[in-house]
Amino acid sequence: MIKLAPSILAADFSRLGEVIKETGESEADLIHIDVMDGQFVPNITLGADIVKAIRPYTDKPFDVHLMVDHPDRFIDQFADAGADIITVHVETCAHLHRTIQMIKSRGIKAGVVLNPATPVDSIDPILAELDMVLLMSVNPGYGGQVFIPSTLDKIRQLRRKIANLSLDIDIEIDGGVNKDNVKAILDAGANVIVAGSAIYRDADIKTSIQTFKQGMRK
Ligand code: DX5
Ligand code: ZN
């Protein structure tokens, strides 16, 4: 199933509750929440207290993307705050298998994120344990960057692997996705699309999500 996960990183943080409510009333499938620690990535965003504060504004699943060193330290906090999916970067996990088990033990979905320069093969041994793989199509840290075209090959490679093993795993793409490149990304085999600036640039969130989803169906 093809899904859209608007990234609130590009939203107006001064009215986050309202933004979440409006996104919740839209055709969005998930809400993508970018957590950055100023260590693993050169930017700081928000923590579990904010996630907890916005949780009552919608029933849509929260897709929490942890861009933090040693993410194990925070999994319980984000699960308690209401995350439905937690993704961790393979580059931050010395014991990736353990981290994935920690997430799953909370009864929520677990995913792994790969930076643009990290090969798809790096998660071969853990693939069968995952609900989702997130392939970064920009170097994480900021919204509004340009999509890295070599991501398309990684999507095809990963989709082939998943099909060969008859697994049911979502492939999510994050960074620089817009109405002009989204079709190529879906055609390559991705099925969950993160979009930040392409969605929240417009004041009318619901219409912009509706238009973006129409473009995904074409
Ligand atoms: C980047 C974040 C993305 C970001 C995407 O580090 O992980 O989720 O919000 O923003 P756009 O869609 O503007 O590239
Ligand atoms: Zn993200």
TrEMBL record:
Keywords: Carbohydrate metabolism, Cobalt, Isomerase, Manganese, Metal-binding, Zinc. Its cofactor is Fe(2+); a divalent metal cation; Mn(2+); Zn(2+). It is an enzyme of class 5 (isomerase). One of its GO terms (biological process) is pentose-phosphate shunt. InterPro entries: Aldolase_TIM (IPR013785), Ribul_P_3_epim (IPR026019), Ribul_P_3_epim-like (IPR000056), RibuloseP-bd_barrel (IPR011060). Gene3D superfamilies: Aldolase class I. The keyword Manganese applies. It catalyses: D-ribulose 5-phosphate = D-xylulose 5-phosphate. Pathway: Carbohydrate degradation. Its EC number is 5.1.3.1. Belongs to the ribulose-phosphate 3-epimerase family. This is Ribulose-phosphate 3-epimerase. It comes from Streptohalobacillus salinus.
